[in-house]
Amino acid sequence: MPTFCAPDGTRLAYRETGVGAPLVCVPGGPADSAYLGDLGGLSAHRKLIVLDLRGTGRSELPDDTSTYRCDHLVDDVEALRAHLALPEIDLLGHSAGANVATQYAARHPARVRRLALIAPGSRAVGIAVTGEERRALAQARKDEPWFPAAYAALEAITQGAGGDWDAIAPFFYGRWDEAAARHHADSRPANDEAAALFGAEGAFTPEATRAALTALTAPVLLLAGAFDLNSPPASTAEFAALFPDATCVVQPGSAHFPWLDDADRFVATTAEFLG
């Protein structure tokens, strides 16, 4: 697996898969980037450059744990771009990784050719999703056999009473089956400290980020799963409105991992956008 050196000396790893023009991919979590796979076959259209965020996968642990903050991870993406000797990049961020990609676009707008935000987290721009919104969206799955237990856990979590996070996993997949259960087990945060510090104080400056995004000329795709409690279609549409040139797509029957729920639809949408 190839590596490069981040500005603070931490050696970071990335994997390459597929053919075509490079697409730099930032995973969420922070989790082991393996959960992205080949994004449902998007690798048939683009060479995926999938970054292992610091402290995850084969990337080194940093000496300074404050660099796990989202805003510091932007520097790692820029170091990867420079390592690849690309004057500009097509950039994809999934879930929490969309916060990194968004801040990258705000800080380095001239370096972004196209930006794809998949099931995007929106903390970077200050868009919050309430527990009430999540519970209302969850009702779309009320006929699923796993719903009663999962919804009870969701109620407890969103009302601040704690709860079993594994119990709500079915809500994050369009189909809850053995393959989804295996994927869930493999996509948990790979480094508890990195996950805890990702959104530490100073990680996000929503007003400044929003202001910077108004000057972004690159086209942006925001793709939401119709059932996604983490990144609901309504908040994703609100997110899209912050960009001068954005397309918001809601993928039917899908949740937080749309390339698993309907790979053909996901790949067709994303590949067409990337060009």
Q: What is the N-to-C succession of helices and strands?
A: EEEEHEHEHHHHHEHEHH
Strand order of the largest sheet: 1-2-4-3-5-6-7-8
Shape: globular
CATH architectural grouping: 3-Layer(aba) Sandwich
What is the count of helical runs? Answer: 10
CATH class: Alpha Beta
Overall number of structural domains: 1
The span between the termini is 27 Å
**CATH fold-level label:** Rossmann fold
Rg over C-alpha atoms, rounded to the nearest angstrom:
18 Å
Beta-strand percentage? 15-25%
Name given to the CATH homologous superfamily: Alpha/Beta hydrolase fold, catalytic domain
Question: Could you report the average pLDDT, rounded to the nearest whole number?
Answer: 96
Low-confidence stretches: none
Question: Biggest sheet, in brief?
Answer: 8 strands, mixed
Give the tally of β-strands: 8
**Overall SS class:** alpha/beta
Query: What is the chains' assembly state?
Result: single chain
Helix percent band: 25-40%
Tell me about this structure.
The chain is an alpha/beta fold. The protein has one domain: Rossmann fold. It is built from ten helices and eight strands. Strands 1-2-4-3-5-6-7-8 form an eight-stranded mixed beta sheet, with helices on both faces. Helix 3 runs antiparallel to helix 4. The longest helix has 15 residues. The chain is globular and about 50 Å long. The two termini are 27 Å apart. 45% of the residues are buried. The mean pLDDT is 96.
